[in-house]
Design goal:
Blueprint lengths: L3 E7 L5 H9 L2 E8 L2 E9 H8 L8 E4 L9 E9 L6 E8 L6 E10 L3 H4 L3 E4 L3 E6 L8 E4 L8 E3 L10 E2 L6 E6 L31
Parallel strand pairs: 1-4, 2-6, 7-10
Antiparallel strand pairs: 1-3, 2-3, 4-5, 5-6, 7-9, 8-13, 9-12, 11-13
């Protein structure tokens, strides 16, 4: 996984007014913390954050660059991003420090690839989960996991334990949850017997209009 760099600096001022002043200057307030360590208030450039981190899926390693030795070269994960409910502007970010030499747990998205044999036979692919929790060393953290569904037949189900995971990566789960299945084709209503009367459509409605999909 590629490590994303972000320039950060410590901030002394706290409070809503001072945070608002930072945002007007194009900065975003945040906090950096880790296990057994005091938290550090930081700020960073809003434009740099958007360019490098907006729209990314999954978990990504972020390495700080900073004039302050206590922050420079530290590695973190995004823990929480607070946004304005109307403008979607980033208001505050929590960064969690990690040790690149120790395993971590993180949530990664699933990408379903291939065309299931059951879909070719008329079935419908039904994803049941879009992400799972994994454990690995930080440098081995994948951006996403590919799930090959090409061999699934109608009624087949792929579970967490069935995943082919990269070396050094293991799934974390209490129950062997299903991830994706192939549903049988939707059975069309039986055709009316030949010669049976059919109801006339309502005025202004052509056959098929107004019907809702189940």
């Amino acid at each position: 996984m590629e490590t994303i760099t972000l320039t950060v600096e410590p901030r002394e001022e706290r409070g809503k007014e001072k945070a608002g002043r930072l945002r007007r200057k194009g900065k975003v307030p945040g906090i950096f913390y880790g296990p057994g360590k005091p938290s550090t208030s930081i700020c960073f450039d809003a434009h740099e954050f958007r360019m490098k981190l907006e729209g990314l899926e999954g978990s990504h390693l972020i390495q700080f660059t900073s004039p302050e030795a206590q922050l420079h070269a530290k590695v973190a994960l995004l823990k929480e991003v607070q946004r304005h409910p109307v403008t979607n502007q980033v208001l505050h970010v929590d960064f969690y420090e990690i040790d690149v030499n120790k395993p971590l747990q993180a949530t990664v998205p699933l990408h379903f690839v291939g065309k299931a044999e059951g879909v070719t036979a008329g079935g419908v692919l039904q994803p049941l989960r879009r992400e799972i929790t994994i454990e690995c060393l930080p440098r081995d953290l994948p951006e996403f996991l590919e799930v090959d569904v090409s061999k699934l037949q109608i009624h087949d189900v792929l579970h967490v334990a069935d995943l082919a995971l990269p070396a050094g990566v293991k799934a974390v789960y209490d129950t062997n949850d299903p991830l994706v299945s192939v549903l049988p084709p939707i059975v069309a209503q039986e055709a009316a017997p030949e010669g049976a009367p059919t109801a006339a459509p309502a005025a202004g409605v052509t056959p098929g209009e107004g019907e809702k999909k189940s």
